[in-house]
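I'll show an entry:

:::
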Amino acid sequence: MLRASIDLGTNTCLMLLAEVESGQIKKVSGDYARIIRLGEGVDKTGSLQPEAIERTFECLSEYYKIISEAGILSGDVVCVATSHARDASNGEAFFDKVEEKFGLRFRVLSGKDEARLSFIGSLLPGMDPSHYAVLDVGGGSTEFVTAEADRSVDLGSVRFTERYLKSDPVTDEEFVECLDKIDNKLEELAGWRSSIPADMQMLAVAGTATTLATWHLEQETFNAAEVERVHLSKGNLQQMVEDLKSMTVAERREQVGIEPKRADVLLAGAMIMWRTMEKLRFPICSISSRGLRYGVLMDLGFTI
C-alpha cells in the first residue's frame, strides 16, 4: 500500500511516499526535501521563531497538496519531529496549529526512538545490520546507532554554527573553540564506542553527509545511487573542513554539489563528521541517502 512519512527536523523537512509491504520499502513514489530551518534561534531563545514557523507552514502546505493528490489521507501520514521540538517552549502550540490547519499529527520523538528508527531506515539493501554504526548528523543533535546500542548527543550543525561559528569567514579562534567543544562532546561516546566491535563500519546519513558526498562528486543534480557508492576517508573529511573554513558562505554557495541553503551550517556538520571519525576511530565513512523517513514506514510496531 502507498504510505507517506514526514520527518520535520531542525534544519530540514523531508517527505517520503512509498509502497510498503511487510515492513519493506518496495517502491518509492516520491522523495522530497526542503531546508526550512525550523530550529533557527531555538538554542538561544528556547522557542520557535515566527519566520521559521512561516517557512515550515509553507513547506507543509506544499506537502499537503502532494499527499492529497496521491490519495493519501492526512490521518494516515506518519509525521515525526526531532531535536528542535524537544527544546522549544512553544513546540506544543506549533504542532497543535499544524494539526488544525492540515490534519497532520506530529509525534515528537525521544532521542532513543529517533536513533532506532534512523538506524532501521538508513541501511542500504544487502547491508548486514551487525556490521554498521549509523551516524546521523542533524541540525540540533547527532545520533550514534548500532543494532545493539545507541546514543543521542546535543551536537548539531545549526546548534554549533549559532553558538561558535558566527563570523564570515570563520575566524581561527571560533574554529578552534568549536572543534574543542565537538571533541569534548564526543568524549561522552567513549563507552558507546568501546561497546561495539573495533572493525564496525560507519554509515553516515542526512543532509550533511549527502551534501559532502555530492560536493565530493561535483554533482550538479542529486543522484542517490552515485552518492551511496561514495566512501570518504578521514583525510577527505579533514580536507573538506579546511576548504570550507577558508571560504565565505557566499563562496560555499557557488561550489558545485553544495545546496546553497545549507552552506552556512555545512562547516559545523563537516567538523562533526570528521572529528567523529578521528576520535571514535572510524577510518572510512559510507553514505546513505535514506534515514528516519524510511524507518518510520518500515517499523511495523511504530504507530501514528
Summary: The chain has a mean pLDDT of 90. Residues 177 and 236 are 22 Å apart (CA to CA). The first strand starts at residue 2 and ends at 8.
